[in-house]
Predict the structure.
Amino acid sequence: MSDMSTDFLSWMSAIQARTEQALDERLPAPDQQPCTLHQAMRYAVLGGGKRVRALLVHAAGAVTGATPDSLDAPACALELIHAYSLVHDDMPCMDDDVLRRGKPTVHVEFDQATALLCGDALQTLAFELLARETTHRPAERSLTMLAHLATASGSRGMAGGQAIDLASVGHRLSLEALEMMHIHKTGALIRAAVLLGAHAGPPVDEALLQRLDRYGKLVGLLFQVVDDVLDAQADTATLGKTAGKDAEHDKPTYVSLLGLEEARSKAEDLLRQACDALAPLGPKASHLEALARYITHRKY
Amino acid sequence: MSDMSTDFLSWMSAIQARTEQALDERLPAPDQQPCTLHQAMRYAVLGGGKRVRALLVHAAGAVTGATPDSLDAPACALELIHAYSLVHDDMPCMDDDVLRRGKPTVHVEFDQATALLCGDALQTLAFELLARETTHRPAERSLTMLAHLATASGSRGMAGGQAIDLASVGHRLSLEALEMMHIHKTGALIRAAVLLGAHAGPPVDEALLQRLDRYGKLVGLLFQVVDDVLDAQADTATLGKTAGKDAEHDKPTYVSLLGLEEARSKAEDLLRQACDALAPLGPKASHLEALARYITHRKY
């Protein structure tokens, strides 16, 4: 993290704290019926995570002049979709994982039925927030944001990527096929985070949107390459989730296809391209650029 | 069905066929990647079901002057949410059922991971349709419809009702607690079907909305009372799903609390109240009234 300015680090802490509070306020209270479900939803979402998607929403919104207030609902919606996907992904019929963000996974802490309903209800809440918190923008724009989030999450986005991932276990994938999987599984939602942030404030011209979308696409891939590198080299305590599980599950990764060094150099290459995409935007894109660096050089 | 007019029966067939086609057109093609997931989604949704929620959307839309074209997307969205809930509800960690609409359930025909992702992606598609098919109404109205659907589906609606249901297995419930469960588990989505149909067309005044909402609330309860009666008395072949499973799972039902005869008479009472709510609306509510009768007197 030596290349992170203190300015960026304090912005990041502020957005993380802000998002934690925004989520806390929007999740049903733990004593509201059905209590167990609401407790599971809060357990799955609060008190952990780097909030990369929320950070991207706020950093993209800073480029287009959106106010922080107008970015809370989209940031929360992204984090809720991400959290739901983790809860379901950790279940025994999927990755069967017992540890997430340093805590027992939801189906371990509660039970499988609660984990299933918890993920379901977190997804619904994401769309509910975007449909209800609409005072900051014209209704058409809220619909555009909802449509982007849905496409990025569904069978032609994140859920589709997970299906491709499942089908690929034990198979040798080409680099192209691996990339296609990750563009869906992780990339689509990260790209949506940038787009939702960009759409949240004043109207934005198409050229700027396309530039931000190019950045989002590159950072989505970057995120996954770095994830694979971290999984291959980190230990479980640092990662906060079970390390080395890709190799154990015989999952194709950038590291298994390219080797550790080439995977690292691919990450640096993607980072360079992402920064190039932002270059014409000047200082207002500084948080987006610093985020790409942070994603590349994070330790967990 | 002796009290069903041929006019109503042919309207019902037409809407069922129309909805089947509308769903077919909106579900991803079976040869689109990821193929298995898309095949599972189509398997879960197409070729079965009474389409009660789609029928309610169209019948409520007929009251408020919405065109059939403007009702297809909301009707599909309701059916997709319903289908997703069945796919997840049938999974081993929930009701563990192997038969649905006379066919093997999704996790039996495919596998559990595919069933999990299939349900997830069907939910997303429901919101995607409502966010993308917006030409028939002002954007604000689409947002209202999205918000209603989300609230009815989430932890304070359908998913919450399922959580209450899980928590109640093996417990004696009061009639009041049973009603609270069903108002969420089945009732919320049926009520949303009526509201979405009512909102889909020209602007509607608040008094009419409230009248339709009262009908929707009553029919939601009615539907579940009749379901319990059918489960207690029907055989598996007629029902198309495993019969008698409520008693087997020691689930509280209207029949276990009230007895078969009193549960039947409660259904008739709810039907009467639902018809009373519609009475001032005249002939344009005739399909809604006939639907309430159909729901009461169906055999499966």
Observations:
- The longest helix of chain A spans residues 206-233.
